[in-house]
Amino acid sequence: MNNNNLFAAIRAAFPAELSAVAIESADSTTGRTTKRYTWQDIDEHTARIANLLTSMALPEGSRVAVQTEKSVEALMLYLGVLRAGYVYLPLNTAYQAGEIEYFIGNAEPAVVVCSPKSLAWVQPIADAAKVTRVFTLDESGGGTLIDEATKQSATQTIAVTGADDLAAILYTSGTTGRSKGAMLTHNNLLSNALTLKDYWGWSSNDVLIHALPIFHVHGLFVASHCALLSGARMIWFSKFDPNSVLARLPEATVFMGVPTLYVRLLADARLSKESCKNVRLFVAGSAPLLIETFNEWQERTGHTILERYGMSETAMLTSNPYAPDQGERRGGTVGFPLPGVNVRVADEKGGICPVNEIGGIEVKGPNVFAGYWRMPEKNKEEFTVDGWFKTGDVGKIDEHGYVVIVGRSKDLIISGGYNVYPAEIEGYINDMPGVAESAVIGVPHPDFGEAGVAVVVAKAGVSLDANLILSTLKNSIANFKVPKRVFVVAGLPRNAMGKVQKNLLRQEHAALFS
Description:
Blueprint lengths: L5 H7 L8 E6 L6 E6 H17 L7 E5 L4 H13 L2 E4 L6 H11 L3 E4 L4 H10 L4 E4 L7 H6 L16 E8 L5 E7 H14 L7 E4 L6 H14 L2 E5 L4 H7 L5 E4 L1 H8 L14 E4 L6 H11 L4 E6 L3 E5 L16 E2 L4 E5 L12 E6 L11 H7 L6 E9 L5 E6 L4 E3 L2 E3 L1 H9 L4 E11 L3 E10 L7 H9 L10 E5 L12 H8 L5
Parallel strand pairs: 1-10, 3-4, 3-5, 5-6, 9-10, 9-11, 11-12, 12-13, 23-24
Antiparallel strand pairs: 1-2, 7-8, 13-14, 14-15, 16-17, 17-18, 18-19, 20-21, 22-23
């Protein structure tokens, strides 16, 4: 019987010599190695975690919700959940109690794993949702999860799953502000990972600097899967720091980052052609890469950044070429559709746009998700009758086949690689005393790519304090969602139909951070 479990494919890609180092955990300040993990360690640690989950006799398809700091053990937890045949649910470490309460209530996980420092407020939420068990896992790889897992056997038979069985649920929001759980199957993730492995020329000789978070597609799926499926070594940082990354860059062959990371590396005088001499591939994604950054990186290092395009719902969709015979890497574009992925641009009536005409980007392929968790009506809205997923992004395909993203139909703000949905932030602001209405927009920012700006209208006779609005938001939502500036105004611009003209607000504040 064929086993379509993603972990089965990852385990099959382990090198023959299991005593070789697979992951080096490095100090985020100095870059020095603090601990080494062999391929044997990965095999045994994931087996113990899988056995722990299996010993709990959880229902088939159970979700395991995880909100922990980044550690190698957190990666082991993800792999152990796959190995046991359950569904992994990563949650941004910046989410606050109100957000976690929604995710746990909506996904109904059987198990929750959180940081020890969060246990006091996570436990009551989990108890109210009748979660079977709550474990802890800290940034150093300790906690009740590891304590219990070490009691389990280090051998385990990988659970058999079907290609269309769920492997993960990633929550992403929409214009209504209500978060949606994108259901990703084992085949969604494996097909995409194998495509990237081949298209980007991965081998067991590669060394990846992993400095991305592991609660979203870029760090958890793209980076980790490519390395694991290639038997390649990872240098693992719990967080990004230019000093530590530059200390280890000479021994790396691959680096992946959001545009903000490239901006911060360029700000360090030590970045040079010499420091990058062994790197064969720099990948950027999760947010638009400014052409200035693209050009400066090329001049400074001699390397051309490969920009690609993907989503929580689809993993990777397009990529600039890796091999020279496939074409050049063009700044301002996200390259060509990946092998096996179809991309088209449609007009408002559903017709296919001609070359260079802007429209809505729609996609189809084995990587496209199975739909939104428990939201059948939303699935009908987001998929066309012939099965294409409407990404919500606006763009065009030029005469050479390069895909160019020109905007986002849902007013999404991408700040430092994180998705920020204006409707959600507006909801929090509008609930504050004295607020009549608000509009949140994204404007260019030299470091974050985009930054949120809130424009707020007070109720008649009320005086609002912009700083108080900001401080209230900081205590309510994840920090990356909090607008960088708040302006209190007399009214919002509207068109004849009464709709707020956010384009005018963007124009007004476009140079705010320049």
